[in-house]
Amino acid sequence: MSLLVLCIFLSAMTSFKAVIPEINAFSWDPLLADVDNILHGGFTPWELIHPLMSWALITRIIDIVYGLWFIVMMTFVVWFLFSSNNDVLRKRFMSSYILCWMINGSALAVLFSSVGPAFYAQAYPDLINPFYALMNYLHSSNVEYPILALQAQDQLWTLYQSSTLSPAAGISSMPSMHVSVATLILIISWRTKKVMPRIFSSVFFVMILIGSVHLAWHYAIDGYLAIMVTVLVWKCSQYLTCNMSE
Fold first, then answer.
1. Omega prior to 45 cis, within 30 of 0
2. This prediction's pTM
3. 181 touches 69 (CB < 8 A)
4. How far apart, in whole angstroms, are the C-alpha atoms of residue 26 and residue 163?
5. From CA 180, how far away is CA 165, in angstroms rounded?
6. pLDDT tens track for 196-233
7. C-alpha distances out from residue 54 to 58, 87, 129, 139, 165, Å
8. 17 near 105, Cβ under 8 Å?
């Protein structure tokens, strides 16, 4: 029953992304890009990690991991709901998971309505695109290996232009739900005594955080805010869970 409720909730949250620009038009990207540069010493974050990522095969690996995010998330949810013997921890996870989607995936997504680096040129055609070189690199890598992110980005923009309302059809950059969920998985995995979940969640978190920038889905600060809010939600969920158990 818990899994069914979570699936319905997740479907509603992902569908909600499609109506974000109707509630609050995309406008934050230029400021978010500028703040990114300021926080990283005058450099666009993707430029800082590019020397380590500028091989098509590495980009392909990151792209595959990033593309598996939904499967990893649902696998982890099922694993934790049905394998954890700690009822309090399970409730805390469920409340945190739902709150992260409500706060990061809905409230803050509407407040900071933005498209992200991949769609910067299309959304702001009158502005200089600081991600032109990154998109060129991704397209050149796509010649050697198929980059799933580019295909998904093309599909999302087409759906956005046609005002199609469907699950996973929306565009939303700030904050990053990919990073938020990866953070929650990391936190909960390190609460268990099992070594493999700890190792997996740590590697997964790092690759999602890097991939969110390298694949032009997000500004670095999208991930930073997602991490901070997720950690805060986790801490607050302790009190919420205590009230639920009373």
1. no
2. 0.91
3. yes
4. 14
5. 24
6. 989 999 999 999 999 999 999 999 999 999 999 999 99
7. 7, 45, 20, 12, 35
8. yes
